[in-house]
Please model this.
Amino acid sequence: MSNPILILDKPQPFVGLGTLTYTIATASLYNVRAQITEIPPSGLSVVIKQNGSTIFTSPVLTPTQVAQQFKYSPIVGAVNDVITVVLASASAIDSGLNNVKSTITIGQGV
Model:
């Protein structure tokens, strides 16, 4: 199964753990916004990569934290660069389909 594809400036709802991708069509500055909700306790982390190299790793949620929201910018993007947002966890509770819910948005600009 292929990774869900992010569409510029369109919030992408996503349920569960996995990877979302965006391929840059126009050289510019970009940003990634994420809003994540889940059932604690958790080991969830969010990693943003550009062309396979990690450029941001979110802090792991604490056992009492039920949500996380952040914006990462700027990402200096060249044509055909690939930005990936990886939701991963070391905690078995997060692997349930409805335990992690997120909305990821890729935007142009800072």
